[in-house]
From TrEMBL:
InterPro entries linked: Dehydroquinate_synthase, DHQ_synth_AroB, DHQ_synth_fam, DHQS/DOIS_N, DHQS_C
Residues where NAD(+) binds: 105-109, 129-130, 141, 150, 168-171
Keyword Membrane included in the entry's annotation: no
Family: Belongs to the sugar phosphate cyclases superfamily. Dehydroquinate synthase family.
Gene Ontology MF terms in the entry: 3-dehydroquinate synthase activity; metal ion binding; nucleotide binding
Record organism: Niallia alba
Pathway connected to this protein: Metabolic intermediate biosynthesis; chorismate biosynthesis; chorismate from D-erythrose 4-phosphate and phosphoenolpyruvate: step 2/7
Pfam family, one: DHQS_C
Top-level lineage group: Bacteria
Source taxonomy: Bacteria, Bacillati, Bacillota, Bacilli, Bacillales
Compartment(s) where it occurs, according to its Swiss-Prot or TrEMBL record: Cytoplasm
Keyword Cytoplasm applies: yes
Catalytic activity: 7-phospho-2-dehydro-3-deoxy-D-arabino-heptonate = 3-dehydroquinate + phosphate
Boundaries of every 3-dehydroquinate synthase N-terminal domain copy: 67-178
Protein known as: 3-dehydroquinate synthase
Length: 360
């Protein structure tokens, strides 16, 4: 088991990562929440079938109840958020209650926002079950989607702890490995050239990565995220770098309809576009052809979906949270590992999107 301690401006907490670290849950709750009036596990319908029992078994001496939400982006809606809060009121949770988020980023984002909202805030613990959640469970961004934009309704709310049992990852389908690995690539590209080269040389088939190696690369990703959120918890400046690939990625997710494209797959396309812009605007020296060759090998889509209109993507990007006064901003790379936030002119974006979409 490895422990990564996170110290943000608002809170210190630990991330425990490794096989069977779920055992830590019992000790952590005994030590810190022994008087919890209720412990609510929020999970989704797939994770419930696969891993809920394991977690419940660790909590047999506590007053545990469960609320199950739809799997995937369907969990991040206002209706599910509201239904969750209704259930908590009906079950008489109070300010001494605790929420556990058992699942991927969608469950973590929803449950963290629910916990922040119930009676103005009760504590929650992240129990991530996906590769992608090495990113979502750390750093305290929690939110639901709005038809007009991704993660538009939410708050910053740090968890009490992150208990990342990598044995849960063994049940993930290949598409979810791929989605999560997109954020690992992001963490490498924005801050750690050696890590990027390691990934590129070591990983050619995501289905063959063993749990031990997943643990190691997820921990590296978490360290990248830690370094940034410790400096800038609420995205006043450098935290925006974690949004590399997301300006276009979020626009693709929203335009396709949430859940049609996984988050990680959408941001991979967004990263390719941001790399193309980085070459244009920041003289980045990097072979996008080589990058795409690797992505193809791993099974990623690497084009903007045919049915998406450029003008509509631009409208979406104008609504991005990084925009100021409607001016679209992209995270670009000056060099591998050296990101920068750049304001872009819409005409320039339109031209570059047309070239990208046209395969040029
Ligand atoms: N808060 C943040 O900082 C942050 C960071 C990155 C992404 N996100 C958000 O996270 C979400 C994506 O996260 P995700 O990819 O984990 O999505 P997810 O929670 O939707 O999980 C993906 C799918 O995998 C299933 N699943 C989860 N764990 C499983 C397991 N162990 N075995 C088998 N199936 C399992 C889920 O049921 C779901 O169908 C997006 O909404 C994205 O916006 C948030
Ligand atoms: O933690 C961050 O900050 C990130 O930007 C991480 C992203 O991978 C993540 O998708 C996040 O939810 C995006 O945040 P948003 O503010 O653009 O919605
Ligand atoms: Zn992301």
């Amino acid at each position: 088991m490895h422990t990564v301690s996170i110290q943000t401006a608002s809170k210190q907490y630990d991330v425990w990562i490794g096989e069977h670290v779920i055992n830590q849950l019992t000790f952590f709750i005994q030590k810190n929440f022994a008087d919890a009036t209720k412990i609510l596990i929020i999970t989704d319908e797939s994770v419930e079938k696969l891993h809920l029992k394991t977690v419940e078994n660790k909590l047999s001496s506590f007053p545990v109840i469960t609320y199950t939400v739809p799997a995937g982006e369907k969990a991040k809606t206002f209706d599910v958020f509201y239904a969750c809060l209704t259930y908590m009121l009906e079950q008489h949770l109070d300010r001494k209650s605790l929420v556990l988020a058992l699942g991927g980023g969608a469950v973590g984002d929803l449950a963290g926002y629910v916990a922040a909202s119930f009676m103005r805030g009760i504590p929650f613990i992240q129990i991530p079950t996906t590769i992608l959640a090495h990113d979502s469970a750390v750093g305290g961004k929690v939110a639901i989607n709005h038809p007009l934009g991704k993660n538009m309704i939410g708050v910053f709310n740090q968890p009490e702890a992150v208990i990342y049992d990598t044995t849960f990852l063994t049940t993930l389908p290949l598409q979810e490995l791929r989605s999560g690995f997109g954020e690992v690539i992001k963490h490498a590209l924005i801050s750690d050239v050696a890590f990027y080269h390691e990934l590129q040389s070591q990983i050619s088939d995501l289905s063959k990565v063993n749990v031990g190696y997943w643990s190691a690369i997820l921990e590296k990703g978490i360290l990248v995220k830690r370094a940034i959120v410790e400096k800038d918890e609420r995205e006043a400046n450098v935290r925006a770098f974690l949004n590399f690939g997301h300006t276009l990625g979020h626009a693709i997710e929203a335009e396709m309809g949430y859940g049609k494209f996984t988050h990680g797959e959408a941001i991979v396309i967004g990263m390719i576009f941001a790399l193309r812009l980085s070459k244009q605007k920041c003289d980045l020296v990097f072979s996008i052809e080589e990058f795409i060759k690797w992505l193809k090998q791993l099974g990623y889509a690497y084009d903007i979906p045919e049915n998406l209109e450029i003008d509509r993507l631009i409208d979406r990007m104008r609504q991005d949270k990084k925009s100021v006064n409607g001016t679209i901003r992209f995270v670009l790379l000056k060099e591998l590992g050296i990101p920068v936030l750049v304001e872009m002119n819409e005409e320039e974006i339109r031209k570059e999107l047309a070239l990208f979409k046209g395969g040029k």
